[in-house]
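Blackboard transcription, Thursday session:
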Amino acid sequence: MDLDTPMENTWCPGCGDFGLLNAFKRAVRELVDEGFCKKEDLVVSSGIGCHGKTVDYLHLNSFYSIHGRAITTISGMKLANPNLHVIAFQGDGDALAEGIGHIVHVAKRNINITMIVYNNEVYSLTTGQFTPTSKKGFKGKSTPKGNVEEPLSPAMLVLASGGTFVARGFVGKIDHLKGIFKEAIKHEGFSFVEVMQPCVTFLNTFKLWREMTYILEDHDPSDFDAAWEKAKETEKLPIGILYQTKAPTYEKELLGSLIPAQQKKAPSEEIKAIFAER
Ligand SMILES: Cc1ncc(C[n+]2csc(CCOP(=O)(O)OP(=O)(O)O)c2C)c(N)n1
Ligand code: SF4
Ligand SMILES: [Mg+2]
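(Written on the board underneath:)
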């Protein structure tokens, strides 16, 4: 299945975004081939930043959202048509600075959407300012003497907010990341994937994260306390599904079997109705 577009790719050579896009395309191809969904039932949306260009490079239904708001955009899509599988791509700055409030509510209400956060610990498109996930001491354009704040843990935030699927992947392990994406899209409820995605231009963490990341083994993802302990780790970075549980979804609780998008008449029918009234 061709998921390429004619858009010119403007990511820097070697950017971690390429690995993420590659893993996502593989996940989509496999989900469609396995009969989980049709290509036209997938919709992606993005925030603003280098990560946002992902929607330009994917031949899928898509919508370029505004800074920090892609999960609110896809929440609206899901409520209009719960049959769609909706996925948001957001940056660490986009998701955890501009849009942080939305994550808490989306996790709390367990709406069946997927959020993929490209965590490069820097505002890349705007050329290197610190974000909520930047390490203490990070020297960037807005923190020339070093960031004085401790970083926020995206996984801990989502776990504490009631998230029912919390995972972490690394663009240096594409096949593993593909598997996480597939499970996240299949999960019935809010699925959150933090992807360690080095920005080779403003903070090249490829070598560091290759050394720090390890694939979770002998871990029970249904155990919240175990997930919390894994999310707290900072010396090494566990990758895989940290936590997964079942809970009622927001759209089922709110709508039952109603599909609001199908309640409305097709535009052609609406036009006929308007003329019929004259
Ligand atoms: C409301 C608003 N505030 C600020 C900006 C400027 N802005 C554009 S991209 C960006 C940084 C994005 O960083 P991140 O979300 O980490 O994505 P990355 O570029 O690293 O992929 C900022 C601050 C904007 N476009 N809109
Ligand atoms: S600035 Fe960084 S994140 Fe943006 S395309 Fe270049 S390497 Fe990738
Ligand atoms: Mg970033």
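Lecturer's comment: DSSP finds eleven helices and eight strands in the chain.
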